[in-house]
Each structure stands twice: as C-alpha cells, then as structure tokens.
Amino acid sequence: MCVRSMWIVILLAGIGAAQDRPAPPPPVVSPEVQADRKVTFRIVAPKAQAVALSAGDILNLPKGGLQFTKGANGVWEATTEPVNPGAYRYRFVVDGVPVVDPRNALISESNTNVWSMVNVPGAEWMDAGKVPHGAVAEIPYLSSALGRYRRMHIYTPPGYELGKGKYPVFYLLHGAGDNDDAWTSVGRAGYILDNLIAAGKAKPMVIVMPAGHTSTAGGISGMDDYTKDFTQDVMPYVEKHYRVLKDRKSRAIAGLSMGGMQTLNISMSHLDQFAYIGVYSSGVFGMRRPAAPGAAAPAPAVPPEWEQQRLAMLDNPKLKPGLKLLWFATGKDDFLLGSTKATIAMLEKHGFKPVYEETTGGHTWVNWRIYLNEFAPKLFR
Amino acid sequence: MCVRSMWIVILLAGIGAAQDRPAPPPPVVSPEVQADRKVTFRIVAPKAQAVALSAGDILNLPKGGLQFTKGANGVWEATTEPVNPGAYRYRFVVDGVPVVDPRNALISESNTNVWSMVNVPGAEWMDAGKVPHGAVAEIPYLSSALGRYRRMHIYTPPGYELGKGKYPVFYLLHGAGDNDDAWTSVGRAGYILDNLIAAGKAKPMVIVMPAGHTSTAGGISGMDDYTKDFTQDVMPYVEKHYRVLKDRKSRAIAGLSMGGMQTLNISMSHLDQFAYIGVYSSGVFGMRRPAAPGAAAPAPAVPPEWEQQRLAMLDNPKLKPGLKLLWFATGKDDFLLGSTKATIAMLEKHGFKPVYEETTGGHTWVNWRIYLNEFAPKLFR
After folding, report:
1. A332 touching B, CB under 8 A?
2. Are residues B218 and B320 in the same domain?
3. Which of A150, A289, B76, B144 is surrounded by the fewest CB atoms within 10 Å?
C-alpha cells in the first residue's frame, strides 16, 4: 500500500531532519467521546459546501440535525449533547455523499454498505468488562437453498474452545438494515452475554447469528427462501460443526424487526424444534394494500394466509407444553407496535400465552440491546 | 434506524400504489466485477467537482490514476483493465475526502480507518471453494502490558469446534497500514488455509492474528511494548483458552512489513519458543539518520544495538538445531528489499541458514497472500 510505504519512508528518512521542517498539524480525531459523554465528530473537507450527520440511533440530537461548523483549517466539527451509553452507527453526509468517518476504524455492517460506529461506554451490562470473554467467529457456509456461499457469526461462550461439554443454542436474527455482523457490532451481543454469564444470570450458550437477507437489493427479503436456508443449511451446519444440544428444550430463536417476522415464520412452522421464541419490535407484518391510491393504510393485521399455512402447527395442542417462552417486546413509539399487538392477539386465539413487554422508545438498537439483555437470562432454565 | 423504517414503510404502503408512481431509477451497483475481470466503480455524487480512486494494490491502473466520467444522473463511473484475481482495498476520493464505497458492504480495516474491498475471484487457492471451512473469531482480551482491552483474530481449522485433539499454532502478524482484521479480509488467510488443508498441503493448525499497533496514531508502532503484549498476554491467552500444542516444534510466527520486524524482535528474543519463522517483505529495518540534512539516505543496515541486545540468543548454538525454518520472501520492487538482504546477512553471520525467496512485485497484499500460501505448507512437518 502506498500509505504504508510512505509512513515507513518518513520514519526512516525523517527523524534526522525533523528540526528543519514545520511541525505537522495535529491529527484530526473523530469521533471523540468526552468524559460527560458528549461526542464530537470531525471531518477534513475543505472544499465541501455542506456537512451533516446521519445517525438515527443517537438520541438527544437537535431537531433539524447536528449543525457542523467549518474551521479555517477545513475541518468540520459538531458536538452532541450528552449521549446515553451504547453503540451508535453514524455517517457523515458531505455534499450529499454518505461518508464513513475517515478517522475511525470502528464500523458496523449493513446489508448494502457500512456505518461508522461510536461506542459510548458507561453501561456495565454491555461494556467490555473485566470478565471472561467469549469469541465471535465468522463462518462461511455453502447454502444449498440459495446456491451460494453465505456467512454467519457464531458466539461461543468463555471456555468453549477448550473442547468440553455441549451447549444449548440460541439463533438470533437481525433486521432489514443489517447483516449478520450487526448483533456483534452495534448489538454488542457478545459483551452482553459475557457479562450475563459472568454474573450467573444467563446459562453459557452458543449464539448463532445468521445472515437474514437473501437478496442484496435492500428492502425486506428472505421470507420463504430464508426459512429454507435456515432450516436446510444454517441449523444443520451448526449441529454438525458445533457441540450443541439438539433437543427442543435446548433451542431458542429470536429476532428483531425483519428478523422477528422470520423468527415467527420459522418457529411457527417448526414449533416442535424450539422451546424459546423471542420477537423484538416485530410481529407478522402484513402486506395489505390500501383500498385505493391515497387512502389511509389499513390497521395492521396478520394476513389470513399466514395463519392458514400454519394451522396444523398453531392448533396442535401437543406442541404447546414444550414451548417454555413466547416473548414479545416493542416500544411505545415503534411503528410496528400495531403488528406486534395483532400478532399477539392472533397467537392467543390459537391458545398460546405470549408474554409481552411494552417498553419506551422506538425501532432502534437502543431497545434491541435491552431486549437481548432481558431475554437471554430466561433461556434454558 | 431510519433507513430500515423507511424500507418497511415503503414496502407496507407502496405495493398498491406502485402503478401510480414513476419507476425508481435502477440501483447504482459498485463495485461490479465483470466476466473479463474488469472492475467498474460507481458513486452518486452530483455536486462533486472531482472523483478519484485510491487503490494502491490494484495493478494495471493507468498512470495518473483511473479517470472517472460523470453521467447526467450524477453518477461517476470508471472501469479498470482486467484485474488479477485477488482481494483489493480501495476508496473513492471525492473533492479530497476519502469515501468508503456507499454501495459496498465489504470492507477491510486498517489501523486508523476502513477501506472498501473488492474480491475478484478466479484464483482457486484463495477463493471460497467447495471445501470444509474453518472459523475466524474476534476475541477481546485484556492486555496487561498495555493496560487496556485489545482484539485478536483466531482462525480455527475445520473440525476444531467439535472439541477433539490439539493443534499446532501459527502467529501471523500484520503490517503498519493494517489491524488484526487484515489477514482475514484482504489477506484471505482463512480461505487460503481452508484450501491448503483440504488439499492435504498444510497441516490443520490454529492461526492467531493479533493486533500489532500499540498506538492508534498511525506510523510504525509496537516494538518493545508490542513484544511485551505478545509474550505476556497474547501467547498466554491462546495457550490457556485454545487446544494448542505448547512445545517449540508446534509454534510458528510470521509477519509482513512492520509485522516482519516484530516477528524478528519476538522470535530472536525467544528463540527457544519458535521452530518456524517467516519474514514477508521485511527485515530489521534501521532507523539511521542521514549524515546531514539533504544527504542521501544510508544503505539499509541492521542497527548494531539490535544485534547487541540479542547476542546471547543469536550466538547460542543449542538453539539452532530446533529452528526448522527461517524463511524470508521479498519482491524485487519492494522498498524494504535492502533491509531484507541486510538482515539475512546479519543472521548468516551468527550461524543461521535463512531461506530466501526473491519474488516479483513490491510491497503489496498481492505478494503477502502468495507468501502465506507458500509458507504455511512448510510448517509442522
């Protein structure tokens, strides 16, 4: 790389001559998390007309967005109000172009691109604490359902690599704006579990975080074809290559948003295989059309065909006792709140007893980390 | 995330009304690898005055750089000549601002930021082939030497997670422009080893890819403090948490550029612990000053103090028989070629018998992947 070469050449040649040259400008630091948890973002863009921050998850941003000021040195800078502890995705928008922070190595992947990420410490339950840590691996696998290589992330708890024992397995699905990296990066799943396990609050478990999109075009993808990938390829791969328990009571599945609907699709078609089901900020969200162009959208409802296709399982009384937990959580401000409630009502109609927590907040990673931290301790008890 | 919300809202609300709206423009695809291995890069930047590509590793780029043309739709586009198979880092430079490709989820991390990455398939030895695949894990560990959390990547070969047997261990260090992700992303170490192991050409082994920088400021870092982090923290962590063999003949170490010098620093201070040593595009690169400002740089030479500090080990005849391989490879066009040769001469003076391969090419990942593919089969025989 020419950058590397330059550094070394500068180092080799430059030391003796340093006194003869003007001092280089101090490096531009971005992001900078201050002691009071304000975050400063900076970018060098001397020719830019406008710089903004795209960061939906960071709360306390002023209406109209964070205002950047341009310094005489071409550095644009803006500082937030104090931010709650957590991991946040962001990008600059420079003259309309989305720009990953050129001074930040920390990123979180989405389905179609990447975000910069800033981690604001201060919440012990998701910080990298002085506890034993697990490992999160990237695994390539050949999907027979989709006919191509795919990737999944797998969390193994502290001690797993020494080779002893079998573990229960928790399948954890991401949302439409994510890929299989998201639960690890912005979701901090590994750290959350490390902390829960160290405190004795959660059982050591393997967490499988598969890729949920079956297309790279964006939008909602992966319904029927995803169920096939999951059941034909992901689960068999995990059960063949990892020391996981293979009975129903040792299997959990949960997901957020699109992943919550996939969780319902998979688990309600294979209810004999899962004892713990979690749906975060989601439900079976329908795709009903407005009655006429311009008409108001209809109230959320589970599409009747979804129920019809799964009746044999939904109404099978033999499968109910083995279902240890059917857990929903959605925020009051979440645009899928109606779908959550409609789905819960539908499941109750079929004799299920879903547990529902309605929280504050909306459709953001702020909530999904909290939901994972609440859900994981309930598993495999 | 507001992006996710928008997608779902569009999906929920938009289906019925699609006929009433103009069709959206086709999505901008970037990068696009064509059948003849030409690569097209595209970015939407209607307000930009100038767009360029920063991509040191992609060969066959025209002198003066790839010329972008701006379409009427605000999309800038450029296409390379056919590119050799391999993984390549790149960024756009839009009006002077380095921009990670907004349409590409594939990235490779550096010490201070991230690169977009394009993978040009066609070289079986580093493609994701239909062979059993290992796992590459990210591991947080507390460095007592540096007083903070650090990360390493660890490759475990196919079958490791089932829990049987112990494996030899290969420590593989990155360069100054990288972080511990680099050997996995742009270096394709996991795929290279998967293919070698499947073909019976390399022994199954654990590969530890630690973080080499001890500062985030860029430049060359991590000499004495890095040796401390490596020997006090990285190696003990691996030997405590993984099923690895702990004798000299089951331990290898190699590195590229900065990592090659770190490899020499560590191995020549702990020669009793390593049987296989690889130095890619590197040597002990000196930091001698020019005689006077403006004078020509002196010929590369190993600093005498480097030898002095290690004389007891360099000249200990008892340690030589257990050293199975001391392997150097550097390209003819590599700016560290002189350092490689000076280091080899120094080691020969102390009775070592280094193996040296002088290859074509320069200081790039194109060579480092090849070197790994040549070096790994020689290990643990």
Report:
1. no
2. yes
3. B144
Residue B348 has pLDDT above 60, yes or no: yes
Write down which residue in A69, A96, A120 finishes a domain: A120
- If asked whether residues A168 and A103 sit together in one domain, one would say no
- Percent of chain A beyond pLDDT 70? 88
Q: Does the distance separating the beta carbons of B8 and A220 come in below 8 Å?
A: yes
Whether A105 and chain B come into contact, CB under 8 Å, resolves to yes
B208 belongs to a structural domain: yes
The residues in B 155-194 lying below 8 A from A, measured between CB atoms, are: 156, 158-164, 175-177, 179, 184, 190-191
The closest CB to that of A57, out of B1, B10, B216, belongs to B1
Q: Which pTM does this prediction carry?
A: 0.91
| Least trusted range by pLDDT, from A42-56, A140-154, B278-292 | B278-292
Residue A54 lies in a domain: yes
Among A300-304, B79-83, B307-311, where is mean pLDDT lowest? A300-304
ipTM of the complex: 0.90
Contacts of A290 in chain B (CB under 8 A): 13, 16-17
User: Can you give the CATH number for the domain in which A226 is found?
Assistant: 3.40.50.1820
Single residue among A64, A85, A120 that ends a domain in this structure: A120
> Is some CB atom of chain A closer than 8 A to the CB atom of B45?
yes
Full 3-state SS string of chain A = CHHHHHHHHHHHHHCCCHHHCCCCCCCCCCCEECCCCCEEEEEECCCCCCEEEECCCCCCCCCCCCCCEECCCCEEEEECCCCCCEEEEEEEEECCEEECCCCCCCEEECCCCEEEEEEECCCCCCCCCCCCCCEEEEEEEEECCCCEEEEEEEEECCCHHHCCCCECEEEEECCCCCCCCCCCCCCCHHHHHHHHHHCCCCCCCEEEEECCCCCCCCCCCCCHHHHHHHHHHHHHHHHHHCCECCCHHHEEEEEECHHHHHHHHHHCCCHHHCCEEEEECCCCCCCCCCCCCCCCCCCCCCCHHHHHHCHHHHCCHHHCCCCCEEEEEEECCCCCHHHHHHHHHHHHHCCCCCEEEEECCCCCHHHHHHHHHHHHHHCCC
Residue A19: per-residue pLDDT: 39
- Do B113 and B168 share a domain, yes or no? no
Check whether residue B257 and residue B355 sit in a common domain. yes
Tell me the nearest-neighbour CA distance from A133 into chain B, angstroms.
7
Would you state the pLDDT for residue A16?
30
Domain carrying residue A44? 30-120
pLDDT tens-digit map of B296-321: 667 788 999 999 999 999 999 999 99
Do A259 and A179 lie in a common domain? yes
- pLDDT tens, position by position, A327-367: 999 999 999 999 999 999 999 999 999 999 999 999 999 99
Closest residue, chain B, to A186 (C-alpha): B1
